[in-house]
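Work through what follows:
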Amino acid sequence: MSLTYLDTHVVVWLYEGRMKRLSQEARRSIERADTLLVSPMVELELNYLFRRGRVSSSDVLRDLAGRIGLGVCDLPFSAVTNEALQIGWTEDVFDRIIVAQAMVRNSKLVSADEVILEKYSQAVW
């Protein structure tokens, strides 16, 4: 089973139909995944962006669940935070939790973030 996580920006671009923003490898990873998930931290970050007017809807995840089967990961939070505590290459709490979520399952994470791509070996762009 192929499991792939999506970073917040990727989720926004998919929701907005901006597939051309995604690299060919990113699109391929999404299309080939049996399961697409996001960290609950993506849900929190989307709400943060919505409240600041940077995302047009609060129903992004619900919409993508219906369109592409995107789900929210249900790993125990303690497992994710234990992994996040080992990440010292960023102080961005959103990024730490999102990457840690994928790390716990040693899964791909589709992200355009250059630091994530450099530091997390399973990151795809």
